[in-house]
UniProtKB/TrEMBL annotation:
Protein name: MarR family transcriptional regulator
Residue stretches in coiled coil: none
Any Pfam family the entry gives: MarR_2
GO biological process: response to stress
InterPro entries: HTH_MarR-typ, MarR/SlyA-like, WH-like_DNA-bd_sf, WH_DNA-bd_sf
Gene3D superfamilies, alphabetized: Winged helix-like DNA-binding domain superfamily/Winged helix DNA-binding domain
One MF term in the entry's GO annotations: DNA-binding transcription factor activity
UniProt superkingdom: Bacteria
SMART domains registered for this protein in UniProt: HTH_MARR
Domain HTH marR-type: residue ranges: 11-147
Length: 161
């Protein structure tokens, strides 16, 4: 086994800063959504994707892919959202074994109220405090890390097969 490559001081500061920022931003945005609209961040993500989909409808596998959630997590969360009249599940007309997740009128009303407030919170906490150059850098970093994660995921799948 090879010796671990420990993080040096600047790498450690960067990593911890990223983790603290990510956690703090997520907690702040989730708290704002819950307080103002009674939605969790997960609820908001589901409703946002459905509200942007044609006719407010997506197959569960499509929604799960957009959210990067496992099937069981999606199913359980959609069940809770159905109980609160935010979404419905209907039979798929083109695949009788399949289902379609549909944004319910109450869900549409909530996302229409929540979205402008959510974007204002994102602006207030992050966007409006960065220069255009910093925003480009943040985008570059995010894209680079996402690409690397996809490569690592493919490598892991290849090893498992």
């Amino acid at each position: 086994m090879t010796e671990p490559r420990w993080l040096d001081e600047p790498e450690q500061r960067a990593w911890r800063s990223l983790m603290t920022m990510q956690d703090g931003l997520s907690e702040f945005l989730d708290r704002q959504l819950r307080t103002r609209c009674g939605l969790s961040d997960a609820d908001y993500q589901v409703l946002a994707h459905l509200s942007e989909a044609p006719e407010g409808r997506l197959r569960p596998f499509e929604l799960g892919g957009l959210l990067r959630w496992e099937k069981s997590r999606l199913s359980q969360h959609l069940g809770r959202m159905e109980n609160r009249d935010l979404v419905t599940r209907e039979r798929c007309l083109t695949d009788q074994r399949g289902a379609v997740v549909v944004i319910a009128p109450r869900g549409r009303d909530l996302i229409e109220v929540a979205a402008p407030q959510h974007v204002a919170d994102v602006r207030s906490a992050l966007i409006d405090h960065l220069t255009p150059a910093e925003l480009r850098t943040l985008t570059t970093i995010g894209d680079k890390v996402r690409k690397r994660l996809a490569e690592l995921e493919r490598e892991q799948l290849d090893r498992e097969q």
